[in-house]
Every structure is written in C-alpha cells, then in structure tokens.
Amino acid sequence: MLCLSFGGTAQQRNPANKAIYLEDISWTEAQKILHSETVVVIPLGAAAKEHGPHLPLATDFLQAEGLAKRVALEKKVVITPVVSYGFYPAFLKYPGSTSTTFATATNMVVEIVRSLAGYGPRRFYIINVGVSTTPTLETAAKTLAEEGILLYYSRYDRPAFDKAEARIRTKAYSGHADELETSNVLSLRPDLVDMRKAVNDSSMKGKSGNMTPVMIETGNLNTSGINGYAALGTKEKGQKNMDSFAHELMKEIDSVATCALPLMKDRSAEYASYEGTYEDATGKKLEISQKDNTLHFIWNGRDTRNFFHLYQDAPDYFSSMNMNILFVKNESGAVNKAWCQFRGERFWVTKAQK
C-alpha cells in the first residue's frame, strides 16, 4: 500500500512538453540525448528557506519548478531535478531555513555539471531563484569555463528581468517574500498560501545584512521575515510575472545554445610539476600522472584512472570522487609533499626525489 501511495503522487508531465526531464528516463535513454549539442537546464531553488508567515519554506523551489515547466513547453532541452539546497545565510535565524557554505554551494553546482558534462553536454543554464546564490554561480561558471564548459544563469538584477518585474509590481520597493513572490506562489500553489498572515513590511529598507526575527546584536530585526508588500500579492500578478520571467529565461537559453564555448585552459606544463610518486608514513604510495590536460592518481595500487580524475578547484588543490589533494611547495617553489583526504582518511605524503 505504501508503494502504491507513493506511486500515486508521482508528478504527471504535460504531454505537450518539448523538453525531457532527466529524472523521468532510463540511463539508456539518457545515453541517446546527452551529447555535445544538448542544452541542460538546472532549476535551483531552496526547498527550506523562510518566506514570511504566509508562504511555505519551499517558495523558491516552487518558483524554480514552475519556471522549468514553462521552459519545458517551449524548448527542446534536458531539465534536471531541482537543486533544492544552496547558499542562503541571511535567513538562518528563522526556524526551518537551511543553507550550505559558499564553498559547498559552489562545488555542488560544479560537480553536478561535471557529472553531466562527462556524457557529452557542454552547455548548461541554471534557473536561479535567489540572490545570494548568484556569486556561487559566478564562481562555478569561472571554474567550469577553464574546462571548456559553458554555464550561464538567470539573475534578478539583469535589466531585462528587472523591467519585466517592474511592469507587474504595484510598489517599487521589494526584496523577499514580497508582492511578487507572494503572487508567484498564489499562481502555483494557492493551497500553501495564507493571505491572512501576509503583511507589508519595509523595515529592511536601506539596510543590508542578516535578518533576525528577534533582537540580536549586529542583526537586522524583522519580525515577519518579509521585505516588501506581501499583502498586495494576487494570483493574476503571479501568472503574469512567471510568464514574463520565463520569457526572459528562454531568450537566455537560446543564447546558450548558440554562443561560442569557452576554450579549455592548457594546464599541461603546470600539471607536470605535480607528477611523480608520493609515499605516506606507512609506505603506501600515491602515483600522480597526467594525460590529455588532466591529472590522474593511483592510490595504494588502486587504479581508477579510467573512472575518476582530479579536477583543479583552486591553486594546488584538486578533487575527485573519492580523493582530495592539496599539493605543497617548498621555498624554491617545487612540489615536495601533499595533504590528502581519501574518503574519511586524512594523511600526508612526501614526494620521492628523482
């Protein structure tokens, strides 16, 4: 009965969709559609983040999902599951809100994209329903560009998006759980909105930093968690705003599909300095080599070079599915040792001298 109940709640896709939802297909079908010309769309929206007393914690998730549905009707793209966690530190004093660190949010996007790029796609677009997420996406895009992968993302402060919203807002001042977000959720899931609790709150006007529902030193007191005129939200405004936002998304997706890809950075000379055999205190060996502008490793005789290679995430710092390595240089600039994390184990290795 539990299985039947769960299956009965499975989402029904619109038969008019042009897009393919990755979660709905098998790996053999994915093999056919994931190639160098595929555009992959990744919705990103928090599933647990405060949006006032009148909206659900999943407000961002619902908006990302709703925008993806509009894109699916118009564009022949592959749509991934919604990424429901990210960098939202400003709301952590409101119970139920969640956030990863900046680094985790950035790496999560990078690793999702890298996984899918391994099957052929080089063009990715993120439906970004957030503001604090933007710098993490900017960082991720720079990292991926050096690997020849294009990542682009929506952001509210681009002129086209701002103008689209301005045509619908009644009040110019807005920011969070406001007139527009309230309207959006009313158009998507009115059953989750309690307009009796929607209030107009501009207490954050002219301020920046973390909001807090109770007085905390250095925080900005905001007892509602609303930044704007939530009471002005309507279903009709939400439908118009979601359509306008989706329209701008699709123009950017079209650009992603046709623009030039970034050139992969040639790091072969740089990577040569890391090559060699390293040994830990117990005599276990770490062998580092490179092929096709990529670093590979063999740890303790376990050769996974055909499965997992090392990605450079920062100067001298590399990661893979199960091994993270920070190479350390001596005073003359030569790599002489490395700090490693292999799954749950952490250790130092020393480079053998030639």
- Can you tell me the CATH superfamily of the largest domain? Creatininase
Summarize the amount of helix as a percent range: 25-40%
Mean pLDDT: 94
Strand content: 15-25%
Largest sheet: 9 strands, antiparallel
User: How many structural domains?
Assistant: 2
Q: What's the level 1 CATH class of the largest domain?
A: Alpha Beta
N-to-C span: 66 Å
**CATH arch. level architecture of the largest domain:** 3-Layer(aba) Sandwich
Low-pLDDT segments: 1-9
Can you tell me the CATH topology of the largest domain? Rossmann fold
User: Major sheet: order of its strands?
Assistant: 13-12-11-10-18-17-16-15-14
What are the secondary-structure elements, in order, as H or E? HEHEHEHEHEHHEEEEHHEEEEEEEEE
Computed structural class: alpha/beta
What is the CA-atom radius of gyration, in angstroms?
A: 23 Å
Q: DSSP helix count?
A: 9
> How many β-strand runs?
18
Outline:
globular
